[in-house]
Specification:
Jelly Rolls, 3 domains, four-stranded antiparallel sheet, mainly beta, 4 helices, Immunoglobulin-like, Glutaredoxin, six-stranded antiparallel sheet
């Protein structure tokens, strides 16, 4: 029994050691496509994987939206994000059917010379099903050739070892590859809020004081074969002391039409923001007055807008820690590297099981969309996920940039 246990443990450790990652810069990679995109990542380039030559994402559309139990997707192409600047090897992208939770029959295969960033692949035919495997065959190494991923979940991403695809989450990793399928969700009635942002116009009052005006710019798409009328955008801009609400009506959206509405410098849709440090919660929601929308999940955009008249003098370094998990190592490295005159260090214990747990720390942990410990946020946006040999280099780079 002991021999069997030892062999089993060696087998598990062999699988876990097969792949590894370095930490990315956490950059936002979001793209706006005229097609609908399906993915499980969150558009942040957090982790760079190496150690295998084939990587995959398993798409199950019957479980993709909480509000829909059965859904087909018409796949017309794919996007694969490559984080290294000068790839030496070709990238082969394959679309496969499912065979007992492993890739099955090959539907499409294309080989390209990849570039830094998103690589778009257009399939020779469209393929409709409820389940797909999207596979990237790409040799990787620990120096200059990687597969990119976001630091979330992991239940949909796989790597191949010995002709079998192992799941990242089951192997103990929290990570979803930056792979996306493009095409169409085959839904009878669906309108989508593709993109929304407030465009800021900085101008000056006659007395020379700075003014910030905000105007809505957004894109909506009709993913159906019917015309949609009686639609509107419900907008709220929330500051701790007050809320601005507005309704922007959309006359009609033709079948499969994508419509961009730009109200920049339109006085009817001008929102005057405070002329001091301010943070606003922006919520935009696409609504059909009669409720004729089978998929409300893709109708809302929510984000925080920060208004800073000038850059703060000090850099904030926020440590999200769990007691006993590399705390002393991180504090020691930061004490050697960071200048106390220009850096402010904040420590958050957001794990409920910790004796130092604070609910506000958990709220901030969630705001940054973090999923594990330790994590460090520099300047409110640059992420260092985990503690490894690259921690010092990343911290130096982020605090000196």
């Amino acid at each position: 029994m002991k021999k069997l246990l030892i062999i089993s443990l060696w087998g598990i450790f062999g699988i876990l050691a097969a792949v590894n990652f370095t930490v990315g810069e956490g950059n936002n990679t979001e793209i706006v496509s005229r097609d609908s995109l399906a993915y499980y990542h969150n558009n942040t380039d957090d982790l760079h994987w190496y150690g295998a030559e084939s990587w995959a994402v398993f798409f199950d559309f019957n479980n993709y939206f909480d509000s829909i139990d059965s859904l087909e997707f018409e796949a017309t192409g794919a996007y694969i994000y490559i984080p290294n600047e000068l790839p030496d090897d070709e990238l082969t992208v394959r679309l496969c059917e499912n065979n007992i939770n492993q890739p099955g029959e090959l539907l499409e295969s294309q080989t390209i010379n990849p570039v830094l960033g998103w690589n778009e692949i257009t399939f020779s035919h469209s393929y409709t099903d409820t389940i797909f495997w999207l596979i990237a065959d790409y040799p990787t190494n620990s120096v200059d050739q990687f597969i990119a991923a976001s630091a979330i979940d992991g239940t949909h991403s796989y790597y191949r070892q010995d002709d079998y695809y192992f799941n990242l989450a089951a192997s103990g990793f929290v990570s979803e590859f930056l792979f996306s399928l493009k095409g169409n969700f085959l839904i009878e009635r669906d309108i989508e809020l593709v993109d929304f942002h407030l465009q800021i116009d900085e101008n000056y009052y006659p007395d020379g004081s700075l003014n910030f005006d905000a105007y809505p710019v957004f894109t909506v798409r009709n993913n159906s074969n019917i015309i949609f009328t009686n639609c509107y955008l419900a907008l709220s801009i929330t500051y701790p002391l007050w809320t601005i609400t507005d309704t922007i009506y959309i006359s009609s959206i033709s079948a499969h039409e994508e419509l961009t509405m730009n109200y920049f410098q339109n006085p009817l849709y001008k929102y005057d923001l405070l002329r001091r440090y301010s943070q606003y919660n922006i919520d935009a929601r696409l609504v059909h007055e009669l409720g004729f929308d089978d998929l409300p999940d893709n109708n809302e955009k929510n984000y925080y807008l920060n208004i800073f008249p000038y850059e703060p003098e000090n850099i904030f370094v926020e440590n999200f820690l769990k007691l006993g998990v590399y705390n002393n190592e991180i504090w020691s490295e930061e004490a050697e590297i960071l200048n106390p005159d220009s850096c402010e260090i904040l420590n958050y214990f957001s794990d409920i099981s910790d004796s130092l747990y604070c609910p506000d720390a958990l709220e901030r942990f969630i705001d940054y969309n973090l999923s594990g410990y330790p994590s460090v946020i520099v300047g409110g946006e640059k992420k260092i996920i985990g503690y490894n040999n690259n921690f010092v280099d990343s911290l130096c780079s982020y605090t000196n940039s």
